[in-house]
Design a protein that fits this description.
Blueprint (H helix, E strand, L loop, with lengths): L1 H41 L7 H24 L8 E3 L1 H16 L3 E7 L6 E3 L1 H19 L5 E11 L6 H7 L6 E9 L6 H4 L19 H11 L3 E7 L3 E9 L21
Parallel strand pairs: 2-4
Antiparallel strand pairs: 1-3, 4-5, 5-7, 6-7
The chain binds adenosine-5'-diphosphate (ADP).
Protein name: histidine kinase
Organism: Litorimonas cladophorae
Length: 267
Amino acid sequence: LEDQLVQSQKMQAIGQLAAGVAHDFNNLLTAIRLNTDELLQRHPVGDPSYPELQNINTTGARAAALVKKLLTFSRKATRRMERLDVTDTLSDMVVTLRQTLGERAQLKMIHARGLPPVNADKSQIDTVLMNLCVNARDAMEDQGGGTITIQSSLLPRTAITDVHLLEALKPIPGDDFVVISVADTGTGMPDEVKSKIFEPFFTTKEQGKGTGLGLATVYGIVQQSGGHLTVDSVVGKGTTFRIYLPAAGAAPEVSELPVVKTPPPPR
Ligand code: ADP
Protein backbone atom coordinates (compact mmCIF):
# COMPACT_ATOMS: atom_id res chain seq x y z
CA LEU A 1 0.00 0.00 0.00
CA GLU A 2 2.85 2.34 0.82
CA ASP A 3 4.34 1.53 -2.56
CA GLN A 4 1.05 2.42 -4.16
CA LEU A 5 0.96 5.71 -2.31
CA VAL A 6 4.50 6.61 -3.35
CA GLN A 7 3.63 5.62 -6.90
CA SER A 8 0.50 7.75 -6.98
CA GLN A 9 2.33 10.74 -5.48
CA LYS A 10 5.04 10.30 -8.04
CA MET A 11 2.51 10.19 -10.84
CA GLN A 12 0.82 13.29 -9.46
CA ALA A 13 4.10 15.18 -9.35
CA ILE A 14 5.02 14.11 -12.84
CA GLY A 15 1.52 15.04 -14.00
CA GLN A 16 1.85 18.52 -12.53
CA LEU A 17 5.27 18.94 -14.05
CA ALA A 18 4.01 17.76 -17.43
CA ALA A 19 1.03 20.11 -17.24
CA GLY A 20 3.24 23.07 -16.36
CA VAL A 21 5.75 22.36 -19.07
CA ALA A 22 3.02 21.66 -21.60
CA HIS A 23 1.26 24.89 -20.78
CA ASP A 24 4.36 27.09 -21.14
CA PHE A 25 5.42 25.17 -24.20
CA ASN A 26 2.04 25.69 -25.79
CA ASN A 27 2.32 29.45 -25.39
CA LEU A 28 5.75 29.46 -26.99
CA LEU A 29 4.56 27.27 -29.83
CA THR A 30 1.59 29.52 -30.46
CA ALA A 31 3.92 32.51 -30.80
CA ILE A 32 6.18 30.62 -33.23
CA ARG A 33 3.26 29.43 -35.31
CA LEU A 34 1.59 32.84 -35.46
CA ASN A 35 4.84 34.35 -36.70
CA THR A 36 5.45 31.69 -39.33
CA ASP A 37 1.84 32.00 -40.51
CA GLU A 38 2.49 35.70 -40.94
CA LEU A 39 5.76 35.04 -42.80
CA LEU A 40 4.14 32.39 -45.00
CA GLN A 41 1.66 34.98 -46.21
CA ARG A 42 4.50 37.26 -47.22
CA HIS A 43 6.53 34.43 -48.75
CA PRO A 44 3.97 32.16 -50.45
CA VAL A 45 4.62 29.06 -52.57
CA GLY A 46 7.34 29.82 -55.12
CA ASP A 47 9.21 32.13 -52.76
CA PRO A 48 12.75 30.87 -52.00
CA SER A 49 12.03 30.97 -48.24
CA TYR A 50 8.77 29.07 -48.54
CA PRO A 51 10.05 25.47 -48.04
CA GLU A 52 11.90 26.33 -44.82
CA LEU A 53 9.01 28.36 -43.45
CA GLN A 54 6.58 25.59 -44.28
CA ASN A 55 8.90 23.15 -42.54
CA ILE A 56 8.96 25.27 -39.38
CA ASN A 57 5.19 25.37 -39.47
CA THR A 58 4.63 21.63 -39.84
CA THR A 59 7.23 20.89 -37.19
CA GLY A 60 5.38 23.31 -34.92
CA ALA A 61 2.17 21.44 -35.61
CA ARG A 62 3.85 18.15 -34.67
CA ALA A 63 5.15 19.67 -31.46
CA ALA A 64 1.62 20.88 -30.68
CA ALA A 65 0.30 17.34 -31.16
CA LEU A 66 2.89 16.02 -28.70
CA VAL A 67 1.93 18.68 -26.17
CA LYS A 68 -1.67 17.55 -26.52
CA LYS A 69 -0.61 14.03 -25.57
CA LEU A 70 1.11 15.37 -22.47
CA LEU A 71 -2.01 17.28 -21.53
CA THR A 72 -4.12 14.13 -21.76
CA PHE A 73 -1.77 12.49 -19.34
CA SER A 74 -1.78 15.42 -16.96
CA ARG A 75 -5.59 15.59 -16.69
CA LYS A 76 -5.90 19.04 -18.19
CA ALA A 77 -7.34 17.79 -21.43
CA THR A 78 -10.98 18.34 -22.20
CA ARG A 79 -13.31 15.45 -21.62
CA ARG A 80 -16.78 14.52 -22.58
CA MET A 81 -18.22 12.29 -19.89
CA GLU A 82 -21.26 10.19 -20.68
CA ARG A 83 -23.00 7.07 -19.55
CA LEU A 84 -21.30 4.42 -21.60
CA ASP A 85 -22.24 0.88 -22.37
CA VAL A 86 -18.84 -0.79 -22.18
CA THR A 87 -19.89 -3.70 -24.39
CA ASP A 88 -20.98 -1.31 -27.15
CA THR A 89 -17.81 0.74 -26.78
CA LEU A 90 -15.61 -2.34 -27.06
CA SER A 91 -17.60 -3.73 -30.00
CA ASP A 92 -17.33 -0.40 -31.82
CA MET A 93 -13.55 -0.69 -31.61
CA VAL A 94 -13.21 -4.21 -33.04
CA VAL A 95 -12.72 -3.22 -36.67
CA THR A 96 -10.19 -0.48 -35.88
CA LEU A 97 -8.33 -2.78 -33.53
CA ARG A 98 -8.18 -5.66 -36.04
CA GLN A 99 -6.83 -3.28 -38.67
CA THR A 100 -4.20 -1.89 -36.34
CA LEU A 101 -3.11 -5.18 -34.84
CA GLY A 102 -2.58 -7.06 -38.08
CA GLU A 103 -3.03 -10.75 -38.68
CA ARG A 104 -0.57 -12.25 -36.26
CA ALA A 105 -2.44 -11.00 -33.21
CA GLN A 106 -5.72 -12.87 -32.84
CA LEU A 107 -8.38 -10.75 -31.18
CA LYS A 108 -10.91 -12.43 -28.93
CA MET A 109 -13.80 -10.60 -27.28
CA ILE A 110 -15.79 -11.95 -24.38
CA HIS A 111 -18.66 -9.83 -23.11
CA ALA A 112 -20.92 -10.14 -20.13
CA ARG A 113 -24.57 -9.48 -20.91
CA GLY A 114 -26.55 -6.63 -19.41
CA LEU A 115 -23.66 -4.72 -17.87
CA PRO A 116 -24.58 -1.49 -16.09
CA PRO A 117 -23.23 1.67 -17.75
CA VAL A 118 -20.16 3.57 -16.57
CA ASN A 119 -19.41 7.28 -16.58
CA ALA A 120 -16.54 7.86 -18.95
CA ASP A 121 -15.35 9.59 -22.09
CA LYS A 122 -15.79 7.24 -25.05
CA SER A 123 -12.76 8.46 -26.97
CA GLN A 124 -10.64 8.09 -23.86
CA ILE A 125 -11.78 4.49 -23.42
CA ASP A 126 -10.92 3.94 -27.09
CA THR A 127 -7.43 5.34 -26.42
CA VAL A 128 -7.00 3.04 -23.42
CA LEU A 129 -8.00 0.03 -25.47
CA MET A 130 -5.81 0.95 -28.38
CA ASN A 131 -2.74 1.56 -26.21
CA LEU A 132 -3.18 -1.70 -24.30
CA CYS A 133 -3.74 -3.73 -27.48
CA VAL A 134 -0.77 -2.24 -29.34
CA ASN A 135 1.46 -3.09 -26.39
CA ALA A 136 -0.02 -6.58 -26.27
CA ARG A 137 0.70 -7.08 -29.97
CA ASP A 138 4.28 -5.81 -29.53
CA ALA A 139 4.80 -8.19 -26.61
CA MET A 140 3.82 -11.13 -28.83
CA GLU A 141 5.86 -10.12 -31.84
CA ASP A 142 9.02 -12.09 -31.04
CA GLN A 143 7.04 -15.29 -30.88
CA GLY A 144 5.29 -14.56 -34.16
CA GLY A 145 1.95 -13.57 -32.68
CA GLY A 146 -0.58 -14.83 -30.18
CA THR A 147 -3.99 -14.04 -28.74
CA ILE A 148 -5.32 -10.86 -27.22
CA THR A 149 -8.43 -11.39 -25.15
CA ILE A 150 -10.60 -8.42 -24.31
CA GLN A 151 -13.19 -9.21 -21.72
CA SER A 152 -15.86 -7.21 -19.96
CA SER A 153 -17.52 -8.36 -16.77
CA LEU A 154 -19.45 -7.25 -13.73
CA LEU A 155 -17.79 -7.48 -10.34
CA PRO A 156 -19.88 -6.80 -7.25
CA ARG A 157 -17.74 -5.47 -4.41
CA THR A 158 -19.02 -8.28 -2.21
CA ALA A 159 -17.57 -10.84 -4.61
CA ILE A 160 -13.98 -9.58 -4.27
CA THR A 161 -11.80 -11.88 -2.24
CA ASP A 162 -8.38 -10.39 -2.99
CA VAL A 163 -7.57 -8.17 0.02
CA HIS A 164 -5.21 -5.90 -1.92
CA LEU A 165 -7.83 -5.28 -4.55
CA LEU A 166 -10.49 -4.67 -1.90
CA GLU A 167 -8.24 -2.12 -0.24
CA ALA A 168 -7.39 -0.40 -3.52
CA LEU A 169 -11.06 -0.12 -4.48
CA LYS A 170 -12.11 1.18 -1.06
CA PRO A 171 -11.98 4.91 -1.96
CA ILE A 172 -14.20 4.32 -4.99
CA PRO A 173 -17.89 4.58 -4.09
CA GLY A 174 -20.58 2.18 -5.26
CA ASP A 175 -21.44 -1.50 -5.03
CA ASP A 176 -20.47 -2.75 -8.45
CA PHE A 177 -17.58 -2.48 -10.84
CA VAL A 178 -17.45 -3.00 -14.56
CA VAL A 179 -14.15 -4.69 -15.34
CA ILE A 180 -12.43 -4.48 -18.70
CA SER A 181 -9.47 -6.79 -19.06
CA VAL A 182 -6.94 -7.01 -21.85
CA ALA A 183 -4.86 -10.18 -21.73
CA ASP A 184 -2.06 -11.25 -24.05
CA THR A 185 0.01 -14.37 -24.52
CA GLY A 186 3.23 -12.38 -24.94
CA THR A 187 6.59 -12.17 -23.22
CA GLY A 188 5.34 -10.94 -19.87
CA MET A 189 7.41 -8.59 -17.72
CA PRO A 190 9.95 -9.05 -14.97
CA ASP A 191 9.18 -7.11 -11.77
CA GLU A 192 11.80 -4.43 -12.42
CA VAL A 193 10.05 -3.54 -15.68
CA LYS A 194 6.55 -3.89 -14.22
CA SER A 195 7.32 -1.39 -11.47
CA LYS A 196 8.12 1.34 -13.99
CA ILE A 197 5.64 0.86 -16.84
CA PHE A 198 3.25 3.64 -15.79
CA GLU A 199 5.98 6.25 -15.64
CA PRO A 200 5.89 8.66 -18.57
CA PHE A 201 8.71 8.06 -21.05
CA PHE A 202 9.59 4.64 -19.65
CA THR A 203 10.00 2.26 -22.56
CA THR A 204 11.92 -0.90 -23.32
CA LYS A 205 11.24 -0.52 -27.03
CA GLU A 206 13.96 0.48 -29.42
CA GLN A 207 14.41 4.12 -30.29
CA GLY A 208 11.70 5.43 -32.56
CA LYS A 209 9.31 2.58 -31.71
CA GLY A 210 8.15 3.53 -28.24
CA THR A 211 7.42 6.85 -26.58
CA GLY A 212 6.79 5.48 -23.12
CA LEU A 213 3.61 7.54 -22.97
CA GLY A 214 1.11 4.78 -23.72
CA LEU A 215 0.62 3.35 -20.26
CA ALA A 216 1.10 6.71 -18.52
CA THR A 217 -1.84 7.89 -20.62
CA VAL A 218 -3.86 4.79 -19.76
CA TYR A 219 -3.13 5.35 -16.08
CA GLY A 220 -4.17 9.00 -16.31
CA ILE A 221 -7.42 8.20 -18.09
CA VAL A 222 -8.40 5.46 -15.64
CA GLN A 223 -7.72 7.84 -12.74
CA GLN A 224 -9.81 10.55 -14.39
CA SER A 225 -12.64 8.10 -14.87
CA GLY A 226 -12.61 7.39 -11.14
CA GLY A 227 -11.42 3.85 -11.71
CA HIS A 228 -8.55 1.57 -10.81
CA LEU A 229 -5.96 -0.21 -12.93
CA THR A 230 -4.05 -3.39 -12.20
CA VAL A 231 -1.51 -5.45 -14.07
CA ASP A 232 -0.63 -9.12 -13.73
CA SER A 233 2.29 -10.44 -15.66
CA VAL A 234 4.14 -13.72 -15.85
CA VAL A 235 7.41 -13.85 -17.75
CA GLY A 236 7.07 -16.20 -20.68
CA LYS A 237 3.30 -16.52 -20.31
CA GLY A 238 1.71 -13.12 -20.78
CA THR A 239 0.22 -10.03 -19.25
CA THR A 240 -3.26 -8.99 -18.17
CA PHE A 241 -4.32 -5.41 -17.57
CA ARG A 242 -7.59 -4.90 -15.69
CA ILE A 243 -9.57 -1.70 -15.48
CA TYR A 244 -12.14 -1.37 -12.72
CA LEU A 245 -14.72 1.31 -13.41
CA PRO A 246 -17.47 2.14 -10.95
CA ALA A 247 -20.86 1.15 -12.34
CA ALA A 248 -23.00 4.24 -12.87
CA GLY A 249 -26.15 4.25 -10.79
CA ALA A 250 -29.56 5.42 -11.88
CA ALA A 251 -28.36 9.03 -12.06
CA PRO A 252 -29.78 11.17 -14.85
CA GLU A 253 -27.89 11.02 -18.11
CA VAL A 254 -25.02 13.48 -18.40
CA SER A 255 -24.51 14.10 -22.08
CA GLU A 256 -22.14 17.02 -22.22
CA LEU A 257 -20.13 18.56 -19.44
CA PRO A 258 -18.84 22.07 -19.90
CA VAL A 259 -15.33 21.94 -21.27
CA VAL A 260 -13.37 23.22 -18.31
CA LYS A 261 -10.43 22.03 -16.29
CA THR A 262 -11.31 18.66 -14.82
CA PRO A 263 -11.05 18.27 -11.07
CA PRO A 264 -8.26 16.06 -9.76
CA PRO A 265 -9.35 12.44 -9.31
CA PRO A 266 -10.10 11.18 -5.80
CA ARG A 267 -7.06 9.57 -4.20
P1 ADP B 1 5.77 2.20 -25.14
O1 ADP B 1 4.76 1.22 -25.67
O2 ADP B 1 5.92 3.39 -26.01
O3 ADP B 1 7.07 1.57 -24.78
P2 ADP B 1 4.12 2.22 -22.79
O4 ADP B 1 3.98 3.20 -21.68
O5 ADP B 1 2.85 1.87 -23.51
O6 ADP B 1 5.18 2.80 -23.77
O7 ADP B 1 4.76 0.88 -22.25
C1 ADP B 1 5.93 0.95 -21.46
C2 ADP B 1 6.64 -0.38 -21.43
O8 ADP B 1 5.84 -1.33 -20.70
C3 ADP B 1 6.89 -1.05 -22.76
O9 ADP B 1 8.05 -0.53 -23.38
C4 ADP B 1 7.05 -2.51 -22.36
O10 ADP B 1 8.33 -2.77 -21.85
C5 ADP B 1 6.09 -2.64 -21.18
N1 ADP B 1 4.80 -3.25 -21.56
C6 ADP B 1 3.64 -2.60 -21.75
N2 ADP B 1 2.64 -3.44 -22.08
C7 ADP B 1 3.19 -4.69 -22.08
C8 ADP B 1 2.67 -6.01 -22.34
N3 ADP B 1 1.39 -6.21 -22.66
N4 ADP B 1 3.54 -7.05 -22.23
C9 ADP B 1 4.84 -6.85 -21.91
N5 ADP B 1 5.38 -5.64 -21.66
C10 ADP B 1 4.57 -4.56 -21.75
